[in-house]
Design goal:
4 copies of one chain form a homotetramer.
Chain A lengths: L2 E2 L4 E6 L5 E7 L10 H10 L16 E2 L3 E2 L2 E2 L4 E6 L8 H6 L7 H7 L17 H15 L2 E9 L8 H10 L6 E8 L13 H10 L4 E6 L10 H4 L3 E4 L2 E4 L7 E2 L2 E2 L4 E7 L9 E4 L6 E4 L14 H18 L1
Antiparallel strand pairs in A: 1-2, 2-3, 3-7, 4-7, 5-6, 8-9, 9-15, 10-15, 11-12, 13-14, 16-17
Helix pairs in contact in A: 1-4, 4-8, 6-8
């Protein structure tokens, strides 16, 4: 349920405003150099504070409970925890009565018979991606590959020069925008993945859609491939510096579910932040009446800004696992 | 590797030109009415023969080896096999030397040290989706939901009135085109799926990317959501005939990974058929020379035409599993 | 449910008197020499016909449907099926009313709401161990280890010279006896298995208790270890031909769940055959009356005679999987 | 690797002398009343301090990080951690050179290339059973069944009146003894478990052999069944207060892998404590010389005394999982 992977496996836990959140990482090769400082660069990339992200900043200090000894991984499971900060949970009973549109508030109550922790979205909070980022650092070290994700578009705007203004305007309107992240993985050996159910795309997309707020995933030419001719999309093999390579990489580095040695390339579409300041009409599920809702608190105008490092982490978790199966 | 699911599980096997292909379906509830005739409608929808599909038609006769007794499922695993027909495998040694662009020929050889069965694509053949369709029929019965997938676009053309002409023209050019399938699932109870790794989207996309030739998957508003504002994409709750419903269903029936009771809606992008008659330049991996390749045989101009029933089957397999976890 | 393993995985299916039984073996390394003849030696060891086993002899002819090409494994799943012979199923409605003592007849009906296939025990039949033996041959080849199991005791008698007479006497009484199988695995590398849940003992015992009719499993000194002192049971390390070895192997080749390089040694206790000719009093579950039952048909006096090769196969499946995880 | 279960799943982590140990429990039904006090009774049963157990007593204070809100389970994963106390790790480099006989010191080094945490046995320490006991309390609540395990024999002595003297004598000799635990589970519904690989015995034995120091597991009549006749071991069905029951329960509550509604009964054999005060000859694996070893520290004379609650916890974890699959 809350775990993923076969030979390299992660298990996540925690709620936004509970005691702590964390992850158990199992199947890590013994002898990898690792300390909490190694995690900080990626943790900082996910952190809020920049323009377009929520001004609420949390400490995000990781603690290893196990699996690391004298600066190296031991081979046994690594548990990483983060204490939640001084979380003042406002009137969360109200949330159970008036679920926020676009959030999991309503379905969490249905699924867990009203016993879900509603504070700050509880277990469904994007905060749970913090330990995923920490595990991603370990996965990157395991895999030996290079992961590079970047935001290529927000609110439909691909010209980065105009993003600052767009974020200001959206913020002023009390609204939010989404974005698209492109991820490139280099140094991938040919032969990773299995045909059909454990294909590289199947596992990568599984991991990507596990990130809250994802609406679409595409590899290589993606949806555009459906509009291409075979003669355009097909990718002849060539010899390049003695290695077999594809010419165009429209397949995103994967054929028949198996990596072909080229860069893996895929894009992930994030929806706009669900919590907006603008008034919304929605249902009070306890009284059955329509009500006006202004979601309280301070929010990311565009949470997609914080996601590239999460996309990298998830990709690394998948590829470390596939590499560990060879 | 070649199996999928938790409480409702499928395991596939077979090669395009081997003795037979099949699937083992485990976790089927006892007492469901089932006979081979029940499978035929969906098997026929996948069959070739219509315009734009290969004229090579196979028998596709399913046989139950186990799990069915006196017209009902017994609770034990159901094995369904299909014998492969009179497959004349042409010069498959040539395939190992000159892997077809866009096919898995090259990576299969890398992965399996040249021991892969290369005939007709071997285990990577789209033919392996035939037993998936058969299992899908059982999954549909298990789930109690309605699955409806249709092709909404081929070669970039959304006007179905023009498809016939487009297929003719493409065929004449010796080329191929892709397409986009949209799938709608009705009668989905709220509360299916788990947050994060077993979210409904994660599992559905995993299954979709297991189908050969898929390049993208999107739910609800999909990639377009990344270009919308929160106030546009957010989906207020309303009461409808006494049930809680969303207004626009831009989330595709899923919030926070959990079904919300609305229809599940997603789209799957299929690339153009890799095998084309037009001459292609590609590598002879044994000699290192570039050669001209005309892929022999008769091919689907647009294999996406045959995929809606496969998309339904995969969706049913996922949702039968999620429903069996409750 | 009916599958086992992580990187080397088997999925079984079939009923005693259904169309066929079989197994799908996934995760097999490509390039292993394999043909159906390779399976026959082990299949014959399981076969009935010798003194103490049922005189009913079946054909037991394996057929590969997939995964083997030109005499070698291809890397894709290997499906092996066996057609069931001319099975005359007697009055099986009677079985549903009067479940045979010691058999699964009653629980199968409870579990599967009366839809279970009752003929010859259906899916619970020992016949399903036939494909396990076939998969075991492949697992033995994969693992590169030597598996040797033998019956060391039947009906409490350890002197093999007296077994023939004991079997005759038991047969004449219309009764049955059990037995104990000891299995030794040689050539095991040190370091297989994981601490705790995937310990070598945990996985081996899991596989052993999957064999119908097993009542106990013990490793090394086994239950006797509970009666030893630490100074007696402890196993000092020594150097032997340059390799680290234990002196007594009372741990059965496993410490802390991890193989130590010594032979793995364990014993499996099989109960007496449940089907006996002697009259038994038991319940008619439909009428609620106690009735007399003489189980019809011809049975193994001691089915344990046929189990050593099954024990080997299950051990090989586990160890091939553990070796494939390294 | 370090996780177990399908619908109710546990993941353990930690080392004996690391920062902390713990467990993540996933698949817990929402709405179960739970606080840390609920865990204490079972945690105390595992604690040392009584005659025959080590005088070193640790705090064993559980902390919930997640999954519990306002005194009830939320449905999301429950993480329970225990901080390790003031552990003075003596000369653990010595342990790597001279692995303790009967311990995992040697294999841990082999498996993890010498990077294993050797202090107090590291991840292989019996201390990791502490979080298992905590998870067992949750599993017991989930399952609704009654678990009762007791020590029925230590050092071969079944007369409890003589145990005190036996422990004194063994302690004086600087030696250790093993023991046998019998576990009875009541209130088990008929129909749990699956034929073959997920049989109730297979999963229970898997969990039992995950406990450090187990050498054997047997169900019902166990190894004695191998010495019985069919007419003695078979268990006719009878009606008892309107329910179908077996007469003798020699099958330990399980037929064909499926629970039959009777009490589940099994026994677990624990070896004597490996750490003994008496001098042992063993190998210095670094120098290749045989040396004398007196294991420093204070040890359990009979660690089996502390295991009944661990056996109950593991049984509850298995049965909560099987019950959650129905």
């Amino acid at each position: 349920m809350n775990s993923f992977g076969n030979n390299f496996k992660v298990s996540i836990f925690g709620e936004s405003h509970g005691t702590g959140i964390g992850i158990v990482v199992d199947g890590v090769r013994a002898g990898i150099s690792l300390c909490t400082e190694d995690l900080m660069a990626d943790i900082l990339r996910r952190k809020s504070g920049a323009k377009g992200t929520t001004p609420r900043v949390e400490a995000d200090e990781p603690e290893f409970l196990s699996g690391v000894f004298e600066g190296h991984t031991t081979g046994s499971p690594i548990a990483i925890i983060f204490r939640n900060g001084n979380t003042r949970s406002s009137d969360y009973e109200a949330l159970k009565a008036v679920p926020r549109p676009g959030h999991a508030d309503y379905v969490a109550g249905v699924k867990w018979d009203g016993f879900n922790d509603p504070r700050g979205g509880g277990h469904f909070s994007g905060r749970i991606t913090l330990p995923v980022v920490a595990a991603g650092v370990i996965a990157k070290k395991m895999s030996g590959m290079d992961f590079s994700a970047e935001l290529i578009e927000i609110g439909g705007e691909t010209d980065k020069a105009r993003w600052s203004e767009l974020l200001d305007r959206t913020s002023k309107e009390g609204d939010s925008i989404g974005g698209i992240v492109e991820c490139t993985v280099s140094g991938v050996p040919a032969g990773l993945g299995e045909p059909f159910f454990d294909s590289a795309e199947a596992l990568l997309s599984h991991a990507m859609f596990s990130i809250p707020g994802v609406r679409g995933v595409e590899f290589g030419d993606g949806f555009a491939a459906a509009r291409m001719k075979g003669s355009e999309h097909n990718d002849p093999l060539v010899l390049e510096d003695g290695a077999v390579r594809t010419v165009k990489n429209g397949a995103g580095g994967i054929n028949g579910g198996i990596t072909n040695g080229a860069q893996i390339k895929f894009r992930v579409a994030f929806k706009p932040t669900a919590s907006i300041c603008r008034e919304q009409k929605t249902l009070n599920v306890k009284t059955g009446e329509m009500v006006s809702l202004n979601v309280p608190g301070r929010h990311d105008v565009c949470f997609a800004l914080r996601t590239p490092v999460i996309v990298e982490a998830m990709a690394a978790i998948v590829l470390a696992d596939l590499a560990a199966r060879k």
